Amino acid sequence: MSEIHLPIESLVRHRGTMLLIDRLVEASDVHVIGEVTISETSTFFRQGRGVPAYVGLEYMAQTVSGFDGAKRVVTGEPPAIGFLLGTRRYTSNVRYFLANTLLSVRADMIFSENGMAAFDCVISAYGEELVTASLNVYRPESGQMEIPEGMA
């Protein structure tokens, strides 16, 4: 387990308003922890309510992307493109993530083979689990977007 001291932009390919996580704080060979601070300037923030809890799926996906990016940076490789294939058992105890809340997003790898992986994820705040889900993801071997013939 090690702390992460790199800017999130060096670990994921998301940019601008679609970069939703603030930082990775810890990573190992089998898990990662990211953080998101909810504010009124957060992407998808709804005045008087907060960020809808279903956005937590993307917080989880970007944390998983950061997990891959943290592994790649060690070998000098840039962040790679990946795909969220699906989710199972998305359960939320809240409807919105409230302003001024620091969310901790943890992803534990449960399977990884041939570019496919599965992660159990938890979003928590103030020591309480708010959202849980399992994510299935895929990263092409090259880590690059491959455009099928006839599509370019």
In short:
The protein is mainly beta.
Give an account of the 3D structure:
There is one protein chain. The protein is mainly beta. It has one domain (2-138): Hotdog Thioesterase (Thiol Ester Dehydrase, Chain A), CATH 3.10.129.10. Helix content is 12%, strand content 41%. The protein has one helix and nine strands; from the N terminus they run ββββαβββββ. It has one helix spanning 56-74; strands at residues 2-3, 23-27, 31-38, 51-52, 83-92, 96-97, 101-113, 116-125, 128-138. The chain has a seven-stranded antiparallel sheet, with helices on one face. Strands 4-6 form a two-stranded antiparallel sheet. Strand 7 and strand 8 (116-125) form a beta hairpin. The longest helix is centred in the middle third of the chain and has 19 residues, at 56-74. It is globular, with a radius of gyration of 15 Å.
